[in-house]
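Onboarding guide, step 5: your first structure request.
Type a short instruction followed by the sequence, for example:

Predict the 3D structure of this protein.
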Amino acid sequence: MEILTNTRLLTALFLLAVFMGAGPGLHLINPDLTDPHVQLTTFGLPIIYVWGLFWYVIQFAVIVIAYRFVWSQRDDD
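The system replies with structure tokens like these:
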């Protein structure tokens, strides 16, 4: 039962990361170019790239967690 709960949580987090990283989540951080004080970069990169990289790191973390804890437990059973 615990594996099923973890699997659903990881699946939901992965789908959220896919949705937010390359989907409508981009509209949350897309700067208004008519604003004279707009910040276009973060850490020296365009803010939209940082946003995408952040969600790709989340996706990678979910895959690593699933590999280490969910998939390995299924193989042991």
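Each response can be followed by summary notes, for example: Helices lie at 2-22, 26-29, 47-76.
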